[in-house]
Amino acid sequence: MTTTEAAARTITDRYVAVWNEPDAQSRRAAIGGLWEPDGVEYVEGGIQFRGHEELDGRIARAYDEFVGSGKFHATMADDASRHDDLVTFTVQLSTDEGEVAWAARVFVLLGETGRIREDYQLTVKPLAA
Q1: Which domain holds residue 22?
Q2: pLDDT level of residue 126 (50, 70, 90 thresholds)
Q3: Confidence check: pLDDT of 129 > 80
Q4: Could you tell me the CATH number of the domain that includes residue 97?
Q5: Reported confidence tier of residue 3, pLDDT bands at 50, 70, 90
Q6: How many domains does the chain have?
Q7: What percent of the chain has pLDDT over 90?
Q8: Taking the CA of residue 56 as centre, how many other CA atoms within 13 Å lie in the half-sphere pointing to its CB?
Q9: How many other C-beta atoms lie within 10 A of the C-beta of residue 129?
Q10: Interatomic CA distance for residues 42 and 104, integer angstroms
Q11: If residue 126 lies in a helix (H) or strand (E), which one and from where to where?
């Protein structure tokens, strides 16, 4: 693994861990360490979540619906790459059997502190109804 790949993997491992974190206090702390205070996540439909409070609400709801329910856990495809302050990878909702039920290509733009300033999530495999 190259230095660039290792740097990308550090960010992506922390990103996926946030979505799997069951403890609300630990999740909030992880969000604070991963995103800039005014960091924003953009998802389809023009929806955005700005700042730690909105990100925490979004991630907590997703955790409750998908991970906390026992249906899935957040995983990552082995495709992380980094170029300067841009990291890209695929995040997934997977079953215990390893089946990928949903996937999105994620592009994160890092700020000067190394935390996420902008996070773009583009669905590449929609969740079946």
Answers
A1: 3-125
A2: very high
A3: no
A4: 3.10.450.50
A5: low
A6: 1
A7: 90
A8: 17
A9: 3
A10: 12
A11: none
- Give pLDDT tens digits for 27-56: 999 999 999 999 999 999 999 999 999 999
Between the alpha carbon of residue 51 and those of residues 40, 48, 77, 87, the distances in Å are 6, 10, 27, 20
Rounded distance between C-alpha atoms, residue 65 and residue 79, angstroms: 26
Contact (CB, 8 A) for 47 and 54: no
Dist. CA 113–CA 19, nearest whole Å: 22
DSSP symbols for 11-75: HHHHHHHHHH---HHHHHHHHHHHEEEEEEEEEGGGEEEEHHHHHHHHHHHHIIIIITTSS-EEE
State the Cα–Cα distance between residues 64 and 67, nearest whole angstrom. 6
Q: Which two tokens stand for residue 95?
A: 């079953």
Tell me the C-alpha distance between 14 and 65, whole Å.
20
